[in-house]
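question for whoever is on the cluster today: can someone run the full assembly for these? two chains, 622 residues total. i dont have access anymore since they changed the login thing
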Amino acid sequence: MIKEDLQVSYDRIRPYIHHTPVLQSRQLSAMVDADVYFKCENFQRSGSFKIRGAVNAILELSETDRQNGVVTHSSGNFAQAVSLSARNIGVPAYIVMPSNAPEVKKAAVQSYGGQITLCPPTIEDREKNADRIRLEKGATLLHPSNDINVILGHGTATMELLEEQPDLDYIFGPVGGGGLIAGTALAAHFFGKNCKTIGGEPAEVDDAYRSLISGKIEKNETTNTIADGLRTNLGHHNFPVIQNYVEKIVLVSEAEIVQAMHLIWERMKIVIEPSSAVPFAALLKEKEPFKNKKIGVILSGGNVDLANLPF
Amino acid sequence: MIKEDLQVSYDRIRPYIHHTPVLQSRQLSAMVDADVYFKCENFQRSGSFKIRGAVNAILELSETDRQNGVVTHSSGNFAQAVSLSARNIGVPAYIVMPSNAPEVKKAAVQSYGGQITLCPPTIEDREKNADRIRLEKGATLLHPSNDINVILGHGTATMELLEEQPDLDYIFGPVGGGGLIAGTALAAHFFGKNCKTIGGEPAEVDDAYRSLISGKIEKNETTNTIADGLRTNLGHHNFPVIQNYVEKIVLVSEAEIVQAMHLIWERMKIVIEPSSAVPFAALLKEKEPFKNKKIGVILSGGNVDLANLPF
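^ ran it for u. tokens below:
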């Protein structure tokens, strides 16, 4: 059932996404004594994996719902992904953004055809404005991670990776709101051959790590991490998936994230955002159990502010 | 004859090099109203195209010459390329480097097995030391650009590009010491279908531009460009090739180089060094004649100091 849902999702989103390349680096593989395959979603349309889930959720809508459009609140990659997906499917997209969002993010959303509503930079204002637009326009609210169609869409990156490398022993992915790691774990379970999923999470925003211990959804107390895509909390749709299908979550420090990001830029010559470096940082940190294994690593996105690099 | 030499060069260097990918960006193609194909030598082994010429020159040596090793003086990509090529072919490599070369460059040469001799940072001292080693060891001196086998080896990047995109109207390459642009122009002429070669050169080191006008090899008066791979002068082997086979050289300012580099990092999510941005800067500057054409752009390398970016 889940396997079929993943397959249906992949088949329908294919025309709207890039099949991203899988890259290797001899040097980085040697550093962890393993065979590492990087799935490069930094080369994905809109600059991150988020378009996979956005397209999948929009394609699930009825014709009437599509005409009324979709609404989301985001200052990051999901805003761009929804804008581009909606334009390509022919659906209006209303994007609520905090007034202090970087100009470059606003410009990107606009260039993809998203209709921006600015609001005060609090989560309450963002939700209130998104809800107002939802009611006014009859638009459907899209959540970036706590939505089953978004989770299934995000999982398709791992399906592509396993198509190329069917024998992976492990897949490492980043843990933020939980949508990507949940989708990754489902795809690894249903399309891999005993392929296990490991999450990398910044120690500064360790809600998922603590949630797995306590057995209930814990909240982050700060958002004090450079990995700006991973500051959000788990949701009730993805937490049970993570409980059932994610083998382990490894916490990494800010310095470890920056070091992994630097290594990937320097050795692989690709631009990834800090959140993307978290899974490889986790592998670098805890390499012993993964020695001589075949390992996939999801590089989730490449939307980084080049004027504000950590090195 | 030249066509056969190129083919022989390509066939023999293939086991030692990566077949690098060709990437496109809708956004960058749209900016110049053309269909642009980027040949990504930033993903090449040792981080730049230079390994193509280095391998080709070393494979040309007799068994005795190989045993005696090769020597070069370089603080940049050629030092790394010669070290890695020599190690993989099983030949000793002696690398003369200026004492003020960045530690990261020395470490890279060492990691590839090159035997470093440090010398005072003047061109005279570099040449004197290289010559001393040549005599002491019986080693063969390799020149990074003014050597016919190096030129032929460098041309193989364009052969690969034309294999994937046979109908290119133009290929843009960077102009420094002249080895890459000469090889590019030969490959474009003999393997393309009326494919013309355009050089991009920093206005601050415009020796090639002036040489084409005066009909003799002109020297750079300064090395004042961020494109550190393009500060050297043309040589007597590559200048005649450039005169005969390069259609035009376009000069670009430092600001234009940085802007093109930023665009490629931001939109394509890849790391290129400043020299690599020069050909695309040239296309951005003079786009009118190239409208609606199919254009190849050689991205020559990705060895950049991440701690000293121009943005």
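summary bc i know u wont read the tokens: The first strand of chain A starts at residue 22 and ends at 23. Chain A has a mean pLDDT of 96.
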